[in-house]
Amino acid sequence: MSAQSWFAVRKELSPRRRMFLGILSFVIPLAIWCLVSYVPFIWHPMVEVSDPGSVSYFTQGMLLEQEVFEREAEAARQKGEAVPVGTSANPIYLPAPHQVAKAMYTAFTTEPKRRDEKWLHESLGNSIYVIAMGFLISSLFGVPLGILAGTYDVFSRLNEPFVEFFRYLPAPAFGALAVAVLGINEAPKIAIIVIGTFFQQVLVIANTTRKLDPSLLEAAMTLGAKRMSLLFRVVIPGIIVDLYKDQRILLGWAWTYLIVAEMIGASSGITWFITQQARYKNFENVYAAIFMIGVLGLTTDLLLAWIGRRIFPWQRSLAH
Amino acid sequence: MTQIQLPSYREQSPEVRARFERLKQRPVILEVQNLGKNFESRQGTVTALRDINLTVHRREFVCVIGPSGCGKSTLIRMLAGLETQSSGQVLLDGQPVSGPGPDRGMVFQGYTLFPWLTVKQNVMFGLQVSGRSGMPEPTALQWIDLVGLSKFADAYPHQLSGGMKQRVAIARALANQPRILLMDEPFGALDAQTRCRMQSYLLDIWKNIDVTILFITHDLDEAIFLADRILVLKAHPGEVQELIEVPVPHPRSTQQFLSPEFLATKARLEELIHPPQTETVGLSEDHLNMVRMVAVDDVVPDVY
């Protein structure tokens, strides 16, 4: 244990320790949450009424601020009437872990209360569809354009000044326009994701392309490679690993535009589900949905990283 | 140190002289005529190279040596067609060179292997893009065998040591069967032992196949050990100082490092490249700083 310090500057810890810390990074926030939820004297600013006693407006299960409850209880005591009983509780917007865990299960099993509401998995599916389509369309144009701009100065000069300008225009600002042009269903939502992703994508990928070691191009030229073979046999394979990494990061950005996209036109998708549930104060459902997005995002990313290691066997040389 | 009496570097044994005679009978493969290169900078035009003339015969091994900043790399990059000359021209087999091409193979100091290709695929690269060889794979395997890396044909570059990478780079350049092999300080990044072994390897390869080599280095021993002739450049502006015919007989071996011919040539190169300092302003300041750094009351006195 003493051989290796936990705090060696820029030294990698042993695999076991790294694994341990990785798990700990999830355990610590969870532990804090549990502590706040289950240990009464830590926060618990509210009182949950278990017996209303003589107070006329108290009902069972009602949440009150501590101060109000004390005042009413004191008043009842002085009048010699039945004193209300309650246990200290947290505000409704902070459900306990077990409630959220239960919601994660019940959200899939209980039918929506209102007819226009969607099942959670329907909402999730809808969101994934919007993201996937938006990202696909953006990549279809953004990736080739980025590579061209990074390779040929002609394309760089022709595109980048405009792209540079356009990326400062906030994607949400195009919401109303997108609805007017594309109707109210999925199309405008996809359009917002495309607008939010595409312009960043062109610039990021153009930059990645420019980072290719120019001596590889020179070596290829002395071996007889010309225009097309340079592009397809050197530039593209040379940047593909970094390109893949960029795409992973950009996919994360696309998720952030989802929130905006789902607020326009006919509301749908996971963020709509969250808003609805928050409106009805079903906060455990809100947390459940948020966690599901997190889990979905993380697993997608890990899956893509794993696939990346599989299809680019040489990338250990380019690690980090 | 007492001065050892060395023969003149111009003295050649009859065998060596006869060899040079035969060499000059061979057809000319590369001709550099009045080659010059200027760079535009904010201070005005900087002349990097001026009036370079050189004739290289077939299967000859020529080293280019010079102090840093003399434009050695610029010269070889112009020969490769990676940079355009400001004046003069380069003729390969009598044809003026414009732009890079597979007839002039190049080995760079940085390994420049394609990291996404295996050793075999790297060597096949040139054959595939030029579409010349009908069967790139067996051809590539032959060249890999020549540099002794058959076992690593399916390895990726990141799995190889520096010396091995450079052997692949040599095989990759040779697989195209270039008219001339240009090497820009190819062993500069290797450690001393590996470099020494690579030099012997290169001589072996050169002896066994029909290839002309132009080799840039800043290592005097390396130049003498490898070259038939050494082109010595000087800096600011880069000009030819002397073209030395190396009097060390062939076949070369590491035992010759201490032979009189070798040492005489080395002494001459030292003279040309590190001339006795007459104006030592910069140098003496360096020395002064060194003195200041030493503690005055050092416990352990210096040993003279």
Overview of this protein structure:
The complex is a heterodimer of chains A (320) and B (304). Chain A has 320 residues and is mainly alpha-helical. Chain A folds into 2 domains: 46-89, no CATH class; 109-318, MetI-like fold (Orthogonal Bundle). In chain A, 67% of the residues lie in helices and 4% in strands. Chain A contains 11 helices and 3 strands. With 304 residues, chain B is of the alpha/beta class. Chain B has a domain at 14-103 and 178-293: Rossmann fold, CATH 3.40.50. Chain B is built from 9 helices and 10 strands. In chain B, strand 9 and strand 10 (239-245) form a beta hairpin. The longest helix of chain B has 17 residues, at 192-208. Chain B is globular, with a radius of gyration of 22 Å. The chains are: A mainly alpha (320), B alpha/beta (304). Chains A and B meet through helix 8 and helix 9 of A and strand 6, helix 3 and helix 5 of B.
Q: What is the end-to-end distance of chain B?
A: 14 Å
**Approximate helicity band of chain B:** 25-40%
Adjacency order of strands in the biggest sheet of chain B: 6-7-8-3-9-10
Helical residue percent band of chain A: 55-70%
Number of strands of chain B: 10
CA radius of gyration of chain B? 22 Å
- Proportion of beta-strand residues of chain A: under 5%
Describe what is shown at a glance.
Chain A has eleven helices and three strands. Chain A has 320 residues and is mainly α. Chain A has a three-stranded antiparallel β-sheet with strand order 2-1-3.
